[in-house]
Amino acid sequence: MSKRLYIQEVVTRDGFQSEAQFIPSEDKIALIDRLAQTGLAKIEVTSFTSPKAIPSLRDAEEVMRGIRRVPGVEYCVLVPNVKGCERALACQVDEINLVMSASDSHGMANLRMTAEQSLEQFRQIIAVSQGSGVFINASLSTAFGCPFEGQVAEARVHELIQRLLDIGVQGVTLCDTTGMADPAQVARICREALARWPQTQFTLHFHNTRGMGLANALAALDAGIDRFDASLGGLGGCPYAPGASGNICSEDLVHMFQRMGLDTGVDLDKLLAVAATLPTLVGHPVPGAILKAGKSDRRYAKAQ
Amino acid sequence: MSKRLYIQEVVTRDGFQSEAQFIPSEDKIALIDRLAQTGLAKIEVTSFTSPKAIPSLRDAEEVMRGIRRVPGVEYCVLVPNVKGCERALACQVDEINLVMSASDSHGMANLRMTAEQSLEQFRQIIAVSQGSGVFINASLSTAFGCPFEGQVAEARVHELIQRLLDIGVQGVTLCDTTGMADPAQVARICREALARWPQTQFTLHFHNTRGMGLANALAALDAGIDRFDASLGGLGGCPYAPGASGNICSEDLVHMFQRMGLDTGVDLDKLLAVAATLPTLVGHPVPGAILKAGKSDRRYAKAQ
């Protein structure tokens, strides 16, 4: 039992965002309220984006206002622009998460903005949030590679981290948006980030698209990272790889860390009980391994 | 590019063993011959077990005699007893792989033998193989945990390694038979094994049952291990976890190591081309991630 790790749940935002079927608001609220009881450090509740852009999250206000806040849990929302920020602030969120891409072609494809344009918009959002006490996190997509451009220079990632901090961002999430990262690269980028910005709250956001999700989390952990995004059941597909896994799975990640003797703060059995409701909720199987195999301490009756 | 790693393919033995449908001998032979052209260090071809015990491998002689040997590739077979050893030697195998369990309840369930009984049988097999020049490897199942007994003491694993070496075993494979290992445990056991027996050829055999397969491989690599078993497509189910993944996937493992800048000796594109034939060959989808998602350097056309 060494240092404390922080697990941040993204299923109701990153997971549900890509679900074809609308999850009823009361189901989202019930799920978030159950998740809040498991010891997760943070929950990314929803996205205050245009209901037209992401219809599956069109109930952002209703969900954010319907949940019962558990002290100690941070409730975060994704905010794409000033209007979204105003909507989020009206709901008394704890944190807003801004998203930009490290590579311009991904930024244009995903957000219709270059990195420069994203940074300019962040400045405006941060100005609007002044005095609210809300924590400002920025997620840097394609920090480990871009599906259009390929390799993203590490110097570029570092430059963008610095510029984000310069405009008032307090926490930075390094995102392996399409599952391109490898453990050596993760170790390098994380070590450098922690060395250069020791006061910044860094989160690592991995996808399991190429099976390396937990290996990358392990590499980040070894480099000194203590915060991880993860999605219940491993929900959240990758638009560029149909059939492939999406986000790393919360219960699989917690299970690995727990088996390693690390303190995630999460009650794994409670989390698994919530995860078990997910396939019915979304109407299809989910990628998570522990839901299928059980925890490592699962015992079988001896053969006769 | 640092040290050379060795990837050992087990699909035609460990993978096909658990397939319900018999794979025709000529298909097995063709698959092995294609695999031998990819740069894999070793191929576990088949098992010289009783055709009644494992009907899917009842064509061991035919397959072993039908393949075209590629210089530099080691052709290994599983041998459960003296009779199997005699059959294997008659086929001029390069290596025989003996299997025992670190935990007696798993040994009884899987082999109907305690560890003591397995060691005694190994002595007889090794005596029969004397003078043949065949390399003797022993696989230690449940080295990281037993589905019946739970934790297996690390001291027990060390004791069994020593006893295996004492009776003439030259290589030892530490097997996470049912996917119970975690990276911290793997690092501990591997470091200790390499420190105590620096001259012994150790192989690590992981399953991805709980999503930790590649994380465990990474932990073993970091501890100094350079040999890994893996199964094409991730084939090879776990009888204790229906629906869960089996062996770690060869092409996913090679992909991870290659992305890390390590030399596996394997031509990944060739290996992927062979892996792509597997779903048709076995008549069902396989768990491998890279087959679905493509390599990390896969590029997509930019959005218009």
What does this structure look like?
2 copies of one chain form a homodimer. Chain A is of the alpha/beta class and 304 residues long. Chain A has one domain: Alpha-Beta Barrel (TIM Barrel), CATH 3.20.20. Chain A contains 13 helices and 8 strands. Chain A has an 8-stranded parallel barrel, surrounded by 7 helices. Chain A is globular. The model of chain A has no long low-confidence stretch (mean pLDDT 95). At the A-B interface, helix 5, helix 8, helix 9, helix 10 and helix 13 of A face helix 5, helix 8, helix 9, helix 10 and helix 13 of B. Chains A, B: This is Hydroxymethylglutaryl-CoA lyase. Chains A, B: InterPro entries: Aldolase_TIM, HMGL, PYR_CT. Chains A, B: Belongs to the HMG-CoA lyase family. Chains A, B: Pfam families: HMGL-like. Chains A, B: It comes from Pseudomonas hefeiensis.
Task: Give the amount of beta strand of chain A, in percent.
Answer: 5-15%
Assign the CATH architecture of chain A.
Answer: Alpha-Beta Barrel
Radius of gyration of chain A: 18 Å
Low-confidence stretches of chain A: none
Q: What is the H/E string of chain A?
A: EHHEHEHEHHEHEHEHEHHHH
Number of strands of chain A: 8
The chain pair with the largest interface is: A-B, 55 and 55 residues
CATH topology name of chain A: TIM Barrel
CATH superfamily of chain A: Aldolase class I
Q: Outline of chain A, from the CA principal axes?
A: globular
Domain count of chain A: 1
Number of helices of chain A: 13
Helix/strand structural class of chain A? alpha/beta
The pLDDT mean of chain A sits at: 95
Distance from N terminus to C terminus of chain A (CA atoms, Å) equals 38 Å
Q: Order of strands side by side in the largest beta sheet of chain A?
A: 1-2-3-4-5-6-7-8
Helicity level of chain A? 40-55%
Quaternary organisation of the protein chains? homodimer
